[in-house]
Specification:
This protein is α/β, with parallel strands linked by helices. Helix content is 20%, strand content 26%. Strand 3 and strand 4 form a beta hairpin. The protein is globular, with a radius of gyration of 17 Å.
Length: 151
């Protein structure tokens, strides 16, 4: 696996319009996310054993997980060290607020909700949001990183 820095200027130069960049278009989906965690074993337990993501790869200091055979949708790493504070400890500071997992339909949403509720993991629920999704809920991983599930 190769780790290369993102060249922002090259990315922005591929814009299909000459208009000034303002924001991602509505409906944009991010393919994967990398998370700094305090403990890889705990992260693997949560993302693989509880959420059911496939553990697709191991790299020194990192585990990679996917919902299918893709190389990874979620990566967890300890590259900046293992002595980190849980997300709730610095909620007023800069950092990731949450990431979202879009479930394919209402049936899978209800199934996931019921399953995670059995673990007492659902931290909060929303009946509607600004993007037009009818319902969503949030869980926290072992480092208090918020994960939103919606359909």
């Amino acid at each position: 696996m190769v780790t290369e820095p993102l060249n922002i200027q090259d990315l922005l130069s591929e814009s299909t319009s000459d208009a000034q960049w303002k924001e991602f278009p509505s409906g944009t989906s991010i393919g994967h996310v990398h998370l700094h965690v305090s403990n890889l074993v705990n992260a693997k337990r949560f993302y693989s054993e509880i959420l059911g993501l496939n553990h697709t790869a191991t790299y020194p200091g990192a585990y990679f997980f996917a919902a299918d055979e893709y190389h990874h949708h979620v990566a967890t790493n300890i590259w900046l060290g293992e002595d980190i504070l849980p997300r709730a400890s610095f909620s007023n500071l800069t950092g990731l607020d949450h990431f979202a997992i879009h479930l394919p339909n209402k049936r899978e949403f209800e199934r996931m909700s019921k399953y995670l509720d059995e673990f007492n993991l659902i931290a909060e629920e929303e009946q509607a949001d600004l993007r037009g999704f009818s319902r969503s809920f949030y869980v926290h991983d072992s480092d208090k990183i918020r994960i939103q599930f919606y359909h």
